[in-house]
Amino acid sequence: MKKVLSRLLASLSLAALPAAAYAADSLVDTTTLLRFSQDSRPGVAKSTLLPATVFLGLDADKLADGKLSAHVLGWGRADLADKSFNENQVDGSLTYGYLQYRFGAANAQARAGRFFVHEGILNEQVDGVSVRSDLPYGFGVSAFGGATVHNVRIPGTSSDGKGDGIFGGRVNYRYGGMFEIGLAGVYETVAPTMADPNLAGRFGSHRVIGADLWYSPFAKVALMARASINTETSRWAEQGYLLTVKPLKDLTVTGEFNDYQDRDLFYSSALFAAMPSMLSGNNLNQQSRTFGGSASYQLNPKFELTGDYKHYTREIGKADRLGAELRCTLSDLAVRTGAGYHYLRSSADFAVLPTLDASGSFHELRAWAMRDTKSYFASLDVIDYLFKREIDGKKNALELYGSLGYHLTPNLALSGDLSYGSNPQNTDELKGLIRLNYSMKLAGKGDTK
After folding, report:
1. Is 252 helix (H, G, I), strand (E, B) or coil?
2. pLDDT for 200-212, tens place per residue?
3. How many CA atoms lie within 13 A of 211 on its CB side?
4. Residue 13 pLDDT > 60, yes or no?
5. 356 has pLDDT over 50
6. pLDDT per position as a tens digit, 243-296
7. Is 15 helix (H, G, I), strand (E, B) or coil?
8. φ and ψ at 329, to 5 degrees?
9. In a 10 Å sphere around its CB, with 0-12 CB exposed, 13-18 middle and 19+ buried, how is residue 291 labelled?
């Protein structure tokens, strides 16, 4: 039943493609990528990877009575040499494909097809229907339901660990431009039984409730908060707070705090539940916290200076990351560039699989530049990681990224990327990519805007 529903909804979405030509406003965007690389590592069979991937997107507005729209995005891949990702030489997926109708009052809308839900604590991908509307006196409501979107199966199983049905929603209250509070929940049908006995007590159905808050008592102060509870484990899953303050015209300061109960937050992820650990049996980690802040100052119209700091605390280790970045925008030359430095200081046990002689601490040096004109565009990015201790005899890891492209027409661009790396795993690593992007906006019955 689930497969039938998924295919039906996808077919309904794709059936809207011909109608796009008759929409008042349509946007067609397609990108073709041809990537090439060679995998030559000790103990691993040498392979040549040459996957060709096509992304196709369509947005058609003002269909039917002008309030209906269609939105589609999908991709397909064909391996022209050795298999690059899984056992399939040819693969593809519909990322989203849905019809949306906007009503004439109360900011109401309805969607049908495959879509994403991003509201409050909700982040779901659904094959089904959703509705939302404003209500009197500042209230609002949204709801969704349908079939879950199954992803790649977990190795050694015939499942991705998800149940077949899912539904949920959010109720919110907003007072002017001062604050908004929301209560939300998601309920997924019973997760499949996994054969691995080690998953007992660490994996189950996806059922969560939570709240979110946005509060801005003054124009230059805003607080965002969220918290969720896993109803299957009856424990907090996560809570997070982000405060943004703009004390001066050109200065923006942020502070954040996040607390995650990892086993409760990822309780419905069979892949996470199966991860090994050096801590206690199969219990990778239970609690992790981060807190920190950043400050960004616009020195003048061309230069911006940013500094940031973040502290990580996990049951299996601690770490600090701090640094700064200087960005430059030369509008008259269509050039953007920047340089930065960061240092990650971590305890030896911060890694998932710690060793006695390894260190996760390193310095990061980065410089980048990009230029985009009417005829061509180019970019260069250089990143060097300097290890506190050598890893497999190497003191650093270097990454170089270069890109060059040309606008063949206002709607068609051809570009190529080339990257080189040297790291403890690969002495030399060379990768390349050719990209063809076509984007066209239509007006009326197929007329180009």
Report:
1. strand
2. 677 889 999 999 9
3. 6
4. no
5. yes
6. 999 999 999 999 999 999 988 888 888 777 766 543 444 445 678 899 999 999
7. coil
8. -120, 115
9. middle
Under 8 Å between Cβ of 149 and 10: no
Give the tens place of pLDDT for each residue, 106-147. Answer: 999 999 999 999 999 999 999 999 999 999 999 999 999 999
DSSP percent split of the chain into helix, strand, coil, nearest 5? 10, 60, 30
Q: What is the DSSP string of 128-145?
A: EEEEEEE-GGGEEEEEEE
What SS3 class is residue 239?
strand
Q: Look at residues 81, 37, 44, 49 and name the one whose alpha carbon lies nearest to residue 425.
A: 44
Amino acid type, 359: S
C-alpha 407/C-alpha 308 separation (Å) is: 37
Residues in the chain, how many? 449
DSSP per-residue string spanning 315-346: TTEEEEEEEEEEEEEEGGGTEEEEEEEEEEEE
Taking residues 88-95, report their average pLDDT: 87
DSSP secondary-structure letter at 348?
G
Min mean pLDDT across 16-25, 154-163, 257-266, 408-417 is at 16-25
Tokens of 23: 């929409």
How many CA atoms lie less than 13 Å away from 341 in the CB half-sphere? 2
Which residues, other chains included, contact 123 with Cβ-Cβ below 8 Å and sequence gap of 6+? 116, 117
User: What's the rounded Cα separation, in Å, for the pair 378 and 58?
Assistant: 27
Residue 314: CB partners within 8 Å, gap ≥ 6?
285, 287, 288, 289, 350
CA distance 74 to 432: 23
Task: Give residue 65's pLDDT.
Answer: 87
DSSP assigned state of 41:
-
- Under the banding of pLDDT at 50, 70 and 90, the label for residue 354 is low
d(CA 443, CA 23): 7
Residue 14 reports pLDDT greater than 70: no
The amino acid at residue 109 is: Q
**Nearest to residue 20, comparing CAs of 57, 74, 50?**
57
Q: Give CA–CA dist 151/281, Å, rounded.
A: 28
